[in-house]
User: Which sequence fits this backbone?
């Protein structure tokens, strides 16, 4: 069904509804209209990295980990698998009369906000700090969710529109001030790409105000969305965000005033309860029947596009429940975990050899922590494989594996009645009796995440600093002091200051939150069954860098993210080692295409990611550092050489002035091709310089 056909069907259906029935369609828990054959429907569904919160599903790596793959084609396949599971679950559950929350087809994903500040707790839900990478990954995810069939497979949602990335504690009252330049250059490109290029079906407004206007009723943002970009789908509020108008932002005084403000601005669907006052607002003459009708048509158009209204059905109605957690999807989740792991340091200890590494000591609060596998907004896996279990499985019959939790994730003691550091002595004992130590540290969704969802209520899900929790820092120090060959594994979704590990450990591997079976992928990388190949989609700063950055509440881009940060990072954006030894042999450019020759001079087959960065050499409006403008994941066998083409992002040849206008650049650019950002820290860590070419036009 085309959009035009769906819209006409929705208009015809709505024309037969009473005002009350139309209004009932605008709450996330939409009423049934039995006399017209319209079943109840719950619009609130999540699919950040798998069908979430509704029951059993394949749990892929957290979004930030999938961004580290730098593989938008594979991400589209993953999103397609997610939509397949969503359809399968919807088919059987609705047949059982279950139309509850999290069991529908309107998926409120992806989160394409820019991870501008490393303290933000929800940053691991995003695709990182770069607008271009976020746009590419977001478009792929939308294409995978929505499909290209006659019927929309599931509905994707671009959230949170716009200029939203903390602080979590004040998001319901906060006013994010963003300059016209930062809006056009940083905060809006991904939303524009998903609307104009990917055809995303819905957009979710943010909790905060942007430049004084509540995002769920912002005339400026709505004009941009509907008039400038031509968005035709439906707009949904974040959950209880419209209530914030009168309770927190104080831009209205009553719920009916908030209804008027939101509905007239173009917010079609309310996740929350304020639209329960629509009829009251209508009776008071604050809104018209046409205001209600317009939004009802928009939301019902989506349901017709999904093939879940009317008698026609869709090609997806026969997808069986058995696809949920099927072998193919589990294999994809495993591959995603492999591709997402980032090797940050290696003094040649990795890959480990079971014949040489002897007794292995696995230590740390995340070594056997299921929560650290799955991040937030996750489904329920039927089986988990932790890092400890993955190591035990791969070394079974060859190596003794000793284990100690070492410490609690953030509390001073594991047992309530124990003294502080009640597992440190055991950890030191394990380290002393091991030939090789694998220390698994980090965070989980109880420490970084959404306000109200995390256990660190003192900071509402955000981080106070970039340090590991204090008991983990003490554990790290004590274990390293033992002096055994030590690999540190970080399981986290954001920038952590790993200076101690960088200086004193033999290797550092970042696994993010790698999915339900992530421990197997980590073990296979540790023992050389696969080469690590992920790249950082965000900058890893030293903790001291926070003193140089703008305040968390300051949305100015100056001084943050790899495009504007002038300090020396611990690990730069785009960085990640492999077990291979790939080199760029040649770079040629014609029009907007880069031709790159690469050779793997090492002894291990590996994936790599060719990264292109462009810098305007003369424009006063260009960011100070080269900007990502193209990437391609490749695979090379040992000693193999290959030729690859990459398309350069057309917007890379433009700059944004202070008024927010995107204008042609200076006409003189320097293009860099390498396996990381073209900065001195990357050269220091990799021992390689990127290849460059001048472009004039």
Assistant:
């Amino acid at each position: 069904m085309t959009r035009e056909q769906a819209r006409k069907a929705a208009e015809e259906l709505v024309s037969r509804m009473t005002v009350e029935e139309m209004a009932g369609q605008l709450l996330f828990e939409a009423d049934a209209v039995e006399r017209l054959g319209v079943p109840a429907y719950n619009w609130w569904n999540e699919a950040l990295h798998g069908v979430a919160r509704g029951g059993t599903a394949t749990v892929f790596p957290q979004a930030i980990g999938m961004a580290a793959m730098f593989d938008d084609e594979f991400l589209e396949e993953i999103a397609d698998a997610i939509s397949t599971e969503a359809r399968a679950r919807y088919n059987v559950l609705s047949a059982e009369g279950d139309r509850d929350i999290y069991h529908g087809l309107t998926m409120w994903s992806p989160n394409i906000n820019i991870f501008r500040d490393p303290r933000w707790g929800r940053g691991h839900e995003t695709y990182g700090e770069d607008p271009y990478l976020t746009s590419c990954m977001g478009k792929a995810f939308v294409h995978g969710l929505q499909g290209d069939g006659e019927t929309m497979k599931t509905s994707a949602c671009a959230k949170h529109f716009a200029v939203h990335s903390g602080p979590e504690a004040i998001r319901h009252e906060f006013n994010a001030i963003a300059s016209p330049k930062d809006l056009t250059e940083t905060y809006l490109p991904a939303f524009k790409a998903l609307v104009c290029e990917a055809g995303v079906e819905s957009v979710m407004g943010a909790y905060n105000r942007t430049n004084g206007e509540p995002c769920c009723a912002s005339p400026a943002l709505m004009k941009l969305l509907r008039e400038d970009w031509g968005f035709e789908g439906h707009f949904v509020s974040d959950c209880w965000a419209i209530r914030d108008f009168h309770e927190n932002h104080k831009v209205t005084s009553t719920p009916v005033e908030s209804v008027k403000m939101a509905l007239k601005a173009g917010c079609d669907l309310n996740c929350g309860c304020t639209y329960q006052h629509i009829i009251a607002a209508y009776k008071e003459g604050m809104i018209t029947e046409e205001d209600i009708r317009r939004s009802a048509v928009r939301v019902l158009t989506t349901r017709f596009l999904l093939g879940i209204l009317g008698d026609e059905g869709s090609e997806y109605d026969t997808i069986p429940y058995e696809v949920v957690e099927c072998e193919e999807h589990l294999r994809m989740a495993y591959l995603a975990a492999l591709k997402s792991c980032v090797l940050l340091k290696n003094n040649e200890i990795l890959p480990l050899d079971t014949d040489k590494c002897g007794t292995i000591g696995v230590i740390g609060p995340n070594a056997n922590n299921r929560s650290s596998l799955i991040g937030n907004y996750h489904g329920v896996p039927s089986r988990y494989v932790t890092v400890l279990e993955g190591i035990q499985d791969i070394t079974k019959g060859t190596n003794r594996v000793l284990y100690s939790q070492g410490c609690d994730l953030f509390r001073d003691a594991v047992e309530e009645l124990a003294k502080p550091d009640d597992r440190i002595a055991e950890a030191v004992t394990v380290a002393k009796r091991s030939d090789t130590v694998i220390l698994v540290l980090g965070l989980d969704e109880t420490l970084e995440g959404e306000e109200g969802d995390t256990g660190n209520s003192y900071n509402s899900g955000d981080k106070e600093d970039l340090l590991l929790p204090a008991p983990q820092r003490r554990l790290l120090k004590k274990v390293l002091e033992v002096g055994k060959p030590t690999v540190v594994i970080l399981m986290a979704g954001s920038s952590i200051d790993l200076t101690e590990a960088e200086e004193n450990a033999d290797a550092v591997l970042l696994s993010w939150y790698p999915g339900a079976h992530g421990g197997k992928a980590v073990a296979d990388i540790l023992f050389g069954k696969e080469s690590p190949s992920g790249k950082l989609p965000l900058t890893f700063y030293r903790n001291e860098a926070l003193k140089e950055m703008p305040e968390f509440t300051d949305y100015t881009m100056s001084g943050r993210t790899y495009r504007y940060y002038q300090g020396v990072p611990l690990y730069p954006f785009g960085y990640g080692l492999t077990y291979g030894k790939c080199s760029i042999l040649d770079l040629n450019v014609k029009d907007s295409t880069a031709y790159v020759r690469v050779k793997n001079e090492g002894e291990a087959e590996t994936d790599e990611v060719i990264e292109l960065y462009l810098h305007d050499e003369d424009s006063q409006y260009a960011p100070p550092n080269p900007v990502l403008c193209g990437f391609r994941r490749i695979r090379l066998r040992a000693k193999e050489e290959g030729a690859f083409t990459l398309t350069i992002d057309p917007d890379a040849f433009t700059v944004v002035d202070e008024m927010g206008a995107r204008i042609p650049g200076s006409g003189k650019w320097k293009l860099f091709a390498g396996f990381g950002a073209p900065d001195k820290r990357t050269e220091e860590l990799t021992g390689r310089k990127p290849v460059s070419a001048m472009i004039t036009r």
Observations:
- DSSP finds 21 helices and 23 strands in the chain.
- The mean pLDDT is 97.
- The chain has three domains: 3-34+77-323, 333-564, 582-696.
- The first strand starts at residue 29 and ends at 30.
